[in-house]
Amino acid sequence: MSKMPTSKLPLLALVLAATLIACPASAEPDxxxxxxxxxxxxxxxxxxxxxxxxxxxxxxxxxxxxxxGRSGLAHxxxxxxxxxxxxxxxxxxxxxxxxxxxxxxxxxxxxxxxxYQRVPREHLKEMMALExxxxxxxxxxxxxxxxxLNVVLEEQNMRVANNPAAxxxxxxxxxxxxxxxxxxxxxxWRQEIEKLTRDDALAFYRRFYTPNNAVVVIxxxxxxxxxxxxxxxxxxxxxxxxxxxxxNRPKExxxxxxxxxxxxxxxxxxxxxxxxxxxxxxxxxxxGESEALDVLAHVIxxxxxxxxxxxxxxxxxxxxxxxxxxxxxxxxxxxxxxxxSPKPGATLHQVEDGIDDILADVIAHGITNEELDxxxxxxxxxxxxAQDNQATLARWYGAAIxxxxxxAMVKAWPDHIRAxxxxxVQAAAGQWLDRRHSxxxxxxxxxxxxEKHS
Amino acid sequence: MKVKLCAAVAIxxxxxxxxxxxxxxTIERIVSPGGxxxxxxxxxxxxxxxxxxxxxxxxxxxxxxxxxxxELVSSMLDDGVGDYDSKTFxxxxxxxxxxxxxxxxxxxxxxxxxxxxENGDEAFEDLRLSLNAPRFDAxxxxxxxxxxxxxxxxxxxxxxxxANRRWWxxxxxxxxxxxxxxxSLESLPTITADDLKAxxxxxxxxxxxxxxxxxxxxxxxxxAMLDHVFEGLPAKADxxxxxxxxxxxLGRRIVVSLDVPQSVVEFGGxxxxxxxxxxxxAYIVNHILGGGSFSSRLYQEVREKRGLAYSVSDSLMWLxxxxxxxxxxxxxxxxxxxxxxxxxxxxxxxxxxxxxADELAKxxxxxNSAFALNLxxxxxxxxLLVQLQLDDLGVDYISRRTAMIDAVSLDDAxxxxxxxxxxxxxxxxVGKPEGVASSGTTAN
Lengths: 454, 444
What we know:
Shape of chain A: globular
Largest sheet of chain B: 6 strands, mixed
Structural class of chain A: alpha+beta
Structural class of chain B: alpha+beta
Number of helices of chain B: 14
Helix content of chain A: 40-55%
Largest interface: A-B, 90 and 95 residues
Radius of gyration of chain A: 22 Å
Oligomer: heterodimer
Shape of chain B: globular
């Protein structure tokens, strides 16, 4: 038996995880979408199988919207949002959720901050009222802020400081973005987290937590009609308190130099290599381009039939694992990644060369129609499987909209996948798998032992 | 294996420990013409079918000195099967988007298969092959073994893995429960193809099999599927007996030095068996102590009031021949001693005084209505149905559960808090905890 997960705590979705959760969704559920007069966008995803509802609010603000020098502020505020309001002081919100048998959690990414409750359907309006209240009603005192900062520092210890692979991930991002704030860890750099204050949090809160910057996604045993009435009676009453400026973050200059970073830690027992390329996101890509990247990632690196796994793990036997991913849910830039870890007896260098050969082959010769069909079958089936999980659907829609997409774009995703051609996949590989726009990261035991690879 | 990006949250035990209000879910117990039983929930809203199953056995049935055998078997059941080598079989599965996963814990080998309804026939055939005709080709064994060994090497420097492994091997020294489920650097290399085949033949049988089917499938199709997939398995499993046991080393603290900024702590004590009349009271008491909501005492005292940790929780665990409660936290090295003392004093306080009437009422309300949250996906429902069968709770358990929770009185809760929490703790700590040393009868 496995241990009880410790998931029911406000959790931070690190950049990678946050940008990966979205991609497919299906056209099947009858998704409704409307906007209240104060700007709150409401998305309703009916699922009548069980009398349960998932209620999520997404603020279009995340780590990339912080002021330089105050990294981690968006995430710190996410934690502090559980400290109560004048109307619902202390932890009475959480107490209410617990008493009705609900679950709650929260997460922060580079582009969004989200809060959710999963509750029996009859309690939805109560959740909406509580969430509407804390949109502008948060009260913070020093004696709740200080222990929470320690909690966040322990979270940083747990997720990053204690984990060499996570530390390498931070270094890769910092090197990948020469100018854009995606280079900062969402949880923050430790020395900046330590200095965050109550005033910082409240200023950030007043600037970004306002109805015209919020998206509410409700998935479950409800209809759009009943949600609309309740939304107007709760969220609809919150006054706009800040104008939201367009998210014009500093953009990347022309990237001209491939970068490499190496993280050495005596605790590393299994070396690995990861390379991330700067690519378009679902929001910034030309039509069809991000879907071509989805197919490309699947064909070269998703699962045991992929080219990377077949070639490097099974046929050549030089890697224990190898794969690729495309993270397209982001407001500004997407990320395309490849990775591998050598089998004992093989070197990082051999694995990296093997990956490069596979990428070069796709760029030169494209993919076969058979690979294309198989990838489409799998990606479209994923969208059907997703309908089985209301919380998954809610996250897909919420993340996509918070990153600048629309409900229509999410719904159309399976059709866009169907339309991808082998030529489009080859073109995407040729254009975007350019070493000059990439960072290669090595995770090793000691710098000496790996000198030959750098 | 590495860089798995989505931080997937395991459902694990949470699914099976929650209660049941009125729900639309109707469980049908079906028996195939060949005599194979399954629990079925029909759900036509989404065109998919999930089949979950568990064979009693798991890692405790690993041969002596060959810990990790079941783990290696489970990692290979979707590799080469029948006439298909590993590549061909994986290709066959992916072409129809058929998903198959196997896993092992101490007492079960579990599988889950998910398919689109339209591909059901092929999916059922693939599942039949994987259970009845695994090939265990030498090249596949080498690869899977190497991957498990890589995970074991990584675990040697992971504080959480070390703390957990040390807890189990201390609590159950000399007992199969004390052996690591995924084996060791020493045991893995000794496992042969014959060992894998022998394990499969002994454990993958019909007598120790529990099955759940959820999705867009009718009972006749489901019955035919049961015979097709499972009828070819041996009728009776050949399992080695496992002795009943209680966790040892209570009262001990074991510190393992590792150069990390945050110490990871595992703590636990003797629990209460699933069949014990006090189980439900113990479950409620544990929810109040450290169960998964923001209101638990440990969460409030350790995290909310003092900011000592990001996470702290514990849960009841029940095996066929042992029961315990087990919790974990992680805290900065210079405050580890304070955190440990606080956890121990909270456990002591609850043992001595029990919960308050208000805490009891709130815990009952939570546990009663939280159940529906665990029925909102086909996979969760299927996992729950298999667990209810493994725990031998009966097909009507869901309808009885609320009354069982409501029947726990404050006196029951106080009495059981004492019984559950007064037996002492075994604590393992990995890191550089300041001022915390190993202690207890056989400290090392």
